[in-house]
Every structure is written in structure tokens, then in C-alpha cells.
Automatic annotation (TrEMBL):
<dbReference type="InterPro" id="IPR004566">
    <property type="entry name" value="PanK"/>
</dbReference>
<comment type="pathway">
    <text>Cofactor biosynthesis; coenzyme A biosynthesis; CoA from (R)-pantothenate: step 1/5.</text>
</comment>
<protein>
    <recommendedName>
        <fullName>Pantothenate kinase</fullName>
        <ecNumber>2.7.1.33</ecNumber>
    </recommendedName>
</protein>
<comment type="similarity">
    <text>Belongs to the prokaryotic pantothenate kinase family.</text>
</comment>
<dbReference type="Pfam" id="PF00485">
    <property type="entry name" value="PRK"/>
</dbReference>
<keyword id="KW-0547">Nucleotide-binding</keyword>
<dbReference type="InterPro" id="IPR027417">
    <property type="entry name" value="P-loop_NTPase"/>
</dbReference>
<keyword id="KW-0173">Coenzyme A biosynthesis</keyword>
<dbReference type="InterPro" id="IPR006083">
    <property type="entry name" value="PRK/URK"/>
</dbReference>
<keyword id="KW-0067">ATP-binding</keyword>
<dbReference type="GO" id="GO:0005737">
    <property type="term" value="C:cytoplasm"/>
</dbReference>
<feature type="binding site">
    <location>
        <begin position="90"/>
        <end position="97"/>
    </location>
    <ligand>
        <name>ATP</name>
    </ligand>
</feature>
<keyword id="KW-0963">Cytoplasm</keyword>
<keyword id="KW-0808">Transferase</keyword>
<feature type="domain" description="Phosphoribulokinase/uridine kinase">
    <location>
        <begin position="85"/>
        <end position="235"/>
    </location>
</feature>
<keyword id="KW-0418">Kinase</keyword>
<dbReference type="GO" id="GO:0005524">
    <property type="term" value="F:ATP binding"/>
</dbReference>
Length: 309
């Protein structure tokens, strides 16, 4: 029997050819900005993969903006501008925040949508005091550790054209929500919502509204668990001399541990928390995404799957 799939699959070579449909170059300052996002990011990868990807996004966004103005014409009045919302899901350490920042840098160069904001869902984790009270300190990142209702409310406001939306802030330094501090988002053209939980569907209830109901486009960044664990351990080791070295860091006790001890500690955290969450709650959401980016061992994207429209 013929195998059917809702996705079109492109190898990185096939995908790279798509960039020749439109000449796409980066200015010096854009290259500098992208190198600031991640020093290991190769500009070849940006040109071959991310430029064609954001070119496609731009076409979708332009289409959605045109639809908005057609609706205005029909009603004979101007309605509030609402942002185009892109969701990015995937495991801890797969590179969601890096992907979000690359996409932001590339999308903000287009004149029809210069203002791109990122929301990271860690801001919607419950504060440690609440997690401790509920016995959830070792379940950070699991569905029950998030105030999903507050995240949905934020997305409702954004999609209603609210002038200002306040987003709570999570500090990886203190490993907690910063009390009373917010990022204020003011009528952006595009919002990227990035987090492990963004494609999850809570248990059905009478008033079920999912975070993903507000997405115009969604991405899942995928990699093998062996690679994820290695990236997680590598990041943990690097953090010893940066974030952990700060006396205010929740993980300051790990600042001076050896390579071997760091590998053991990070692997334990991975196995006890992040791996369980990946298998149980994150991976099952992969096929809900419109686009699946599969990485190989060096973060290079190997295949791109695009949902057929
Ligand atoms: N495209 C990329 N090229 C090179 N390194 C990357 C890339 N994306 C992520 N990384 C590295 O992988 C690790 C995890 O990335 P990060 O964006 O922090 O993941 P997440 O937000 O999914 O937890 C970091 O050390 C980051 O520097
Ligand atoms: C904060 C996270 C849950 C990720 O949250 P996200 O930004 O995807 O909402 C994760 O980075 C985390 O801290 N996990 C707990 C185990 C650990 O320290 O890795």
C-alpha cells in the first residue's frame, strides 16, 4: 500500500536549492547580529536553511496581513492590528531559544513586519514557592508546573489587538520567577512563543482552549535523545564558568566541580527530569507542528518537513 504523509519532506540539500528562487543576502550588521545569537552558528547554515525558511514565513505573514485588510474592506472599517504568532516546541536543549532568536533576526529585516517579539514559556512556570508547596520542584517543565491559563490569557490579549501585554520573567540565574517584573510587549507584528509545552493539549474539559489555538504557524525542533543529552551536558559544563559562577546562582555549588562530576550531575538531571518529560509530554506533540526541523549531531538541520496545505 502507498505510504501517505501529511508532510512534504526535504533533505537539507533540496531545501538549500530553494534559496536560489529569490536572491537572499545578509548585510554585515545582520551577520554580526546572528553571530551574537550563537557564536557556533555557521553563516552557511543561516543561508542554506534559515533564510529560505523565513522567506517562506514572510510569504505566509504577507498572506495573513492581506486577509486582514480584505476583512477590513468587507466591514468598511479598520480593525486593530493583531500579531502573527509562531510557536516553537521541542525538548530542553534542542535549541528552541537559539532558533527563535535566529528567526527573529531574519524576520525583522522585512519592512512589512519589523517588530518581532519572543515570549519564552518559562515565564509561565509557577514560582518555586508554589512548586515546592505542590511537591513539583523536580517536575519543572512538566505540564502541571506551568500556569497555562495565564499563558492562554496572554495570547488572547495579543490576538485581540491589546495595546500592551505584560509577560512574567523567569530567571535561569535564580532558577525562579522574578517577582513583580515583566516584559512589556506593545503591538508587535510577529510574536514567537517558544517553549517545551507549546503544542501540548491539556485533558479535555468543558472550556478547553489550547496554547496552539493561537498559533498561525508552529515548528517542532527535533533531534535524537543521545544528541540532546550531549548538548545538555555541554551547556551545563559551559555554565560553570558563566552563570553558575555568580554567587546569586541557584547552581553556584556546581561552579567549581570537575568535568567528570559535571557530566554525572547533568546526566542525572537529564535522566530524572528532562528525559522523562521528553518521552511522556514533549515528543508526542511533534506531529501537531506545521514544520518539523530535524537536527543532526552538530546542530545542522538534516531534514525539513512541511505540512501540506
Ligand atoms: N543552530 C545552532 N548551532 C550551534 N549551536 C546551537 C544551535 N542551537 C543551539 N545550540 C546550542 O545548543 C545548546 C542548547 O540551545 P538552547 O537554544 O539553549 O536550547 P533550548 O532553548 O531548546 O533549551 C546551547 O548550548 C546552544 O548554544
Ligand atoms: C525552564 C525549563 C523547564 C524550560 O522551560 P521552557 O522555556 O521551555 O518553558 C527547563 O530549562 C528546566 O529548567 N528544566 C528543569 C530541569 C533542569 O534544570 O534542566
Amino acid at each position: 500500500m502507498e505510504n501517505y504523509s501529511p508532510y512534504m519532506t526535504f533533505s537539507k540539500e533540496e531545501w538549500a536549492k530553494l534559496r536560489f528562487n529569490t536572491p537572499m543576502t545578509l548585510t554585515e550588521s545582520e551577520i554580526e547580529e546572528l553571530q551574537g545569537v550563537n557564536e557556533q552558528l555557521s553563516m552557511e547554515e543561516v543561508s542554506n536553511i534559515y533564510l529560505p525558511l523565513t522567506r517562506l514565513f514572510n510569504l505566509y505573514i504577507t498572506g495573513s496581513q492581506q486577509l486582514h485588510s480584505i476583512t477590513d474592506t468587507f466591514f468598511g472599517k479598520q480593525t486593530n492590528k493583531v500579531p502573527f504568532i509562531i510557536g516553537i516546541a521541542g525538548s530542553v536543549a534542542v535549541g528552541k531559544s537559539t532558533t527563535a532568536r535566529i528567526i527573529r533576526a531574519l524576520l525583522s529585516r522585512w519592512p512589512n513586519h519589523p517588530k518581532v517579539e519572543i515570549i519564552t514559556t518559562d515565564g509561565y512556570l509557577y514560582p518555586n514557592a508554589v512548586l515546592e508547596e505542590r511537591g513539583l520542584m523536580n517536575r519543572k517543565g512538566f505540564p502541571e508546573s506551568y500556569n497555562t491559563r495565564a499563558l492562554v490569557d496572554c495570547l488572547i490579549k495579543l490576538k485581540s489587538g491589546a495595546k500592551q501585554v505584560k509577560v512574567p520573567i523567569y530567571s535561569h540565574l535564580t532558577y525562579d520567577i522574578i517577582p513583580g517584573q515583566y516584559n512589556t510587549i506593545e503591538q508587535p507584528d510577529i510574536v514567537i512563543v517558544e517553549g517545551i509545552n507549546v503544542l501540548q493539549t491539556p485533558k479535555p474539559s468543558k472550556h478547553s482552549v489550547f496554547v496552539s489555538d493561537f498559533f498561525d504557524l508552529s515548528l517542532y525542533v527535533d533531534a535524537s535523545e543521545a544528541d540532546l543529552l550531549r548538548w545538555y551536558v555541554d551547556r551545563f559544563k559551559k555554565l560553570r564558568s558563566t552563570a553558575f559562577a555568580d554567587p546569586k546562582s541557584y547552581f553556584n555549588r556546581y561552579a567549581n566541580i570537575s568535568d567528570e562530576e559535571a557530566t554525572i550531575t547533568a546526566t542525572q538531571i537529564w535522566n530524572n527530569i528532562n528525559s522523562v518529560n521528553l518521552q511522556k509530554n514533549i515528543k508526542p506533540t511533534k506531529n501537531r507542528a506545521d514544520i518539523i526541523l530535524r537536527k543532526e549531531d552538530n546542530h545542522v538541520i538534516k531534514t525539513i518537513k512541511l505540512r501540506k496545505i
